[in-house]
Write a structure and sequence with these properties.
The protein has 231 residues and is α/β, with parallel strands linked by helices. It has a single domain, classed as 3-Layer(aba) Sandwich (Rossmann fold). The protein is 29% helix and 26% strand. The strands form 2 sheets. Strands 5-4-3-6-7-8-9 form a 7-stranded mixed β-sheet. Strand 4, helix 5 and strand 5 form a beta-alpha-beta unit. The termini are far apart. The relative contact order is 0.12.
């Protein structure tokens, strides 16, 4: 599949070179699984950043996308998606909390296309971002795989539970019980959490109990909502 990078005429080769170097660097660091790399190769991050930042799309740093939100640094998508272990060829029911630009939703959807099945429910509390992400995901051909909801993501989305995987792209003060409860047995929750300093956690549901791994320190925008931070 050809990468869905925006056609930027004279600087397109430069963008492609930057993209390959970035993915090679993430692979060498051991934080990019094979399926996640393939998905990130097939999706142009340039489509998910504002026009003035397109030449910076393959720098490994966050970029502002408006409404006080950011698209995370590429290494964070590599870490979170790889940690979710979406590797088996099976139907995955996935919940993403914090749609933002839609880039994480696109990566998940691309992996599900490789598997041949699955669905992503993604929740965004800011209507303007949700509408923009929905439009772009539809343009990229992911409309049948990804459903964008405008809601309070801190309480999850019980209507489509249980989930095989839940990925949260905003920092919670504590890990909400509602999210863990919406995991299916054997499911995995990836979430940044912490009141003063955030860490990224991988939490597996095993016989109804939490098997928790700390994946290291991170810095995400706050998870706003009933089970997150107040406005």
């Amino acid at each position: 599949m050809v990468s869905r990078d925006v056609n930027m005429a004279s600087n397109l080769p430069e963008i492609c070179d930057k993209k390959k170097k970035l993915l090679d660097d993430l692979t060498e660091k051991g934080i990019l699984s094979k399926k996640t790399r393939q998905a990130m190769e097939n999706i142009g991050r340039t489509r998910f950043v504002p026009a003035k930042y397109k030449n910076q799309a393959y720098e490994d740093r966050p970029i502002e996308i408006g409404a006080g939100q950011t698209i995370s640094a590429p290494h964070m998508y590599a870490i979170m998606t790889s940690a979710a272990q979406i590797e088996q060829k099976k139907f995955y029911n996935i919940l993403e909390i914090g749609t933002g630009s839609g880039y994480q939703s696109a990566i998940l959807a691309e992996i599900l296309k490789q598997h041949g099945g699955g669905h992503v429910h993604t929740i965004e509390r800011i209507t303007s971002l949700a509408n923009k992400a929905r439009k772009l995901l539809n343009e990229l051909g992911y409309g049948k795989i990804v459903t964008v909801h405008v809601a309070d993501g801190s309480v999850g989305y019980p209507r489509a539970a249980p989930y095989d995987r839940i990925l949260v792209t905003a920092g919670a003060p504590e890990i909400p019980d509602d999210l863990f409860d919406q995991l299916d047995e054997g499911g995995i929750l990836i979430i940044p959490s912490g009141k003063e300093h955030q860490s990224l956690y991988s939490i597996k549901k095993q016989k109804g109990k939490r098997i928790t791994k700390n994946l290291g320190g991170v810095a995400f925008v706050p998870l706003i909502g009933k089970k997150g931070w107040s406005r």
